[in-house]
Design a protein that fits this description.
The protein is mainly alpha-helical. It has one domain. It has 4 helices and 2 strands. The radius of gyration is 18 Å and the shape is extended. The two termini are about 30 Å apart.
Length: about 90
């Protein structure tokens, strides 16, 4: 299930090895005089700051396929609670 290009969740692989692999690929393309386009996605805060219903409407903005499927699966049937100091909220969907 895990592809060879996957660096997370694999022994001896990390964010650093992922970046080095990416850099090697981009450098080889530039050396071969090929065009290189990159898109950086930072989902670290997307799930905290963007209303989930808006994230689920990405298809309307041209983002589809595996990315939308992944986001939809991530948001489906999720529960959370918040802890601040010594206080904890109830679980909320």
């Amino acid at each position: 299930m895990i592809r060879p290009s996957q660096h997370g969740f694999r022994e001896e692989y990390s964010c650093v090895s992922n970046l080095l692999s990416f850099l090697e690929s981009v450098t080889a393309s530039v050396d071969a005089k090929q065009n290189v386009d990159t898109i950086y996605l930072d989902f670290a805060n997307a799930f905290d700051k963007v209303p989930h219903q808006r994230l689920l409407k990405l298809r309307a903005h041209g983002i589809d396929g595996a990315v939308c499927d992944w986001i939809g699966a991530w948001l489906k049937d999720r529960w959370q609670k918040v802890q601040l100091g010594g206080s904890t909220s109830n679980w909320q969907q």
